Amino acid sequence: MKTTITTIIVALLFSSNLLFAQNEHFTKSGIIEFEKTVNMYAMIQKEITPDNEAFFGPILESYKKTQPQFRKVKSTLTFGDNKSLYAAVPNDNGPGGFFTDDAMSGQPNTVFNDLETRSTATQKKVYEEIFLVKDSTRKITWKITDETREIAGFTCRRANALVMDSIYVVAFYTESITVPAGPESFTGLPGMILGVALPHENVTWFATKVTEKSIEPKDLMPPKKGKVVSNKELYTTLKQVMKNWGPSAQLELKALLL
Questions:
Q1: Which of 53, 73, 114, 255 could form a disulfide with 103 if both were Cys (CB 3.0 to 4.6 A apart)?
Q2: Structural domain tally of the chain?
Q3: CA-to-CA distance for 65 and 34, rounded, in angstroms?
Q4: Distance between CA atoms of 199 and 127, rounded to whole angstroms?
Q5: Distance (Å, rounded) from C-alpha 65 to C-alpha 59?
Q6: CATH, residue 70
Q7: Residue 84 β-bridge partners
Q8: What integer pLDDT is reported at residue 55 of this predicted model?
Q9: Domain assignment present for 8
Q10: Does a structural domain hold residue 12?
């Protein structure tokens, strides 16, 4: 009798789990609206050294009097057919002011990812020049945690990683959106990344809205314009350009290669 009851309980649990799985909805294509937030005060403070404090100190104080602490810029991620296209919202540059042309505070990249072939094409504005970086998608070793967070109506799980050897990344992804992409070049989790934070770089990307819809192939085309380079070639070029920039070179280099 005891064995029979146990069998019935197991069968009921299996049936309820199966029913839940059948009723769970998965989003396969659509558009995600992202908001990038940069702590400008903290970012500018990092550029101040004992050698340039007399110059940059007053500039920071002046900036604080006229500009908000957090700069916000918008972007969209179009996804479908295991591809994604991340791009800035046209004419949305956020508040202006000095330092807003820095790579970390702006939205200089258009990023196309083909998750099937694990290839990427990134149109990257580097000051007055435009590069088209064609390479494989960034390989990120994620550590998935049990922490969860609600983002844009989706329950997301936290994952941590280190990119470019020194940038600590916190990401939140949802398996309810099946395309394993994310903002900028962040991919590689078992679902869509809806939130990214770089705590030590004072910048975040978080989804504000997810619209499920069919996406035409023409809306998922990689960018074409720019000088074609690989990630390694771009790194070599930037290192040469910044060789005399001093301490600020490393900060700007990280931002441009992110």
A1: 255
A2: 1
A3: 28
A4: 25
A5: 10
A6: 2.50.20
A7: 79, 113
A8: 87
A9: no
A10: no
Strands 167-174 and 154-163: antiparallel
Kindly state whether residue 50 falls inside one of the protein's structural domains. Answer: yes
The whole-number pLDDT of residue 11 equals 45
For every residue of the chain, DSSP letters joined together read -HHHHHHHHHHHHHHHHHHHHHH---B-SEEEEEEEEEEHHHHHHHT--TTTHHHHHHHHHHHHHHS-SEEEEEEEEEEETTEEEEEEPTT---S-STTTTSTTTS--EEEEEETTTTEEEEEEEETTEEEEEEEEPPP---EEEEEEEEETTEEEEEEEEEETTTEEEEEEEETTB-S---STT---SSSEEEEEEETTTTEEEEEEEEEE----GGGGPPP--SEEE-HHHHHHHHHHHTTTSTTHHHHHHHHHH-
Q: What is the pTM of this model?
A: 0.87
Compute mean pLDDT per 10 residues along the chain, 258 residues long, and list them.
Answer: 48 44 80 96 87 88 92 96 95 60 83 97 92 96 98 98 94 98 97 97 97 97 97 93 78 84
Query: Which pLDDT belongs to residue 222?
Result: 97
Q: How does strand 227-229 pair with strand 129-136?
A: parallel
Q: How far is CA 7 from CA 4, 17, 18, 229, in A?
A: 5, 15, 16, 62
Do the domain assignments include residue 197? yes
Full domain range(s) for residue 33? 26-257
Place of tokens 């099946």: 178
> Which residue, 133, 152, 82, is CA-closest to 256?
133
